Predict the 3D structure of the following.
Amino acid sequence: MEPQRALTRPQWTTPRAAAVAGILFALLLIASLTLIRISVPADPRDAGEWLSGGRRTVDLAIHLLPFAGIAFLWFIGVVRDRLGEREDRFFATVFFGGGLLFLAMLFASAAMAGATLRMGGAGPGMRIDSVLYTFGRTVTYELMNVYALRMAAVFMISTCMLSLRTGIVPRWMAYVGMLLALFLLFSLGSFDWAPLVFPLWVLLISVHLLLANLGRSRSQ
């Protein structure tokens, strides 16, 4: 009995680790995106009046993103470990690549935003150049709302396909995830709060994995 218990226990702790990492990632990214959205105008061509009162809020949001990225990497790793030998190589490659590209675009947009803010505060009383500000805002907007969101959609589609093949989450969750991914693919920046779709979906999946894992643990 003890050998069997030792073999099955890692299979339960893996989804729990994935759930905790996914919840942490989702909460950090939701907090960061919300802080940015309530402080920064959605139009990347704005004149920058918000800098007088929203700089500290955006700084906090940018500093949350590296921790969200670490949690997301952990989430990817433990999900792949959960799939194990059932992993489909094609979808697993898209899953892994999409996740890494999303993270790279997210970090690149955060770095561009942070550098733009730093240039504006490089010296006492120094004001940011309007051309530099416009360039930084536009590049940040494109990286986040065009590239990062579409890589997030690719990650969601591949995860949902793997879920349908392996059954790690209910089928309805996989279908909902695919619909949300299509929304991200074709929204084209039309909805200001669209970036929140991805962390909310990860939060849904993670909460399900955590509750399912806890239920199995209590039944033993």
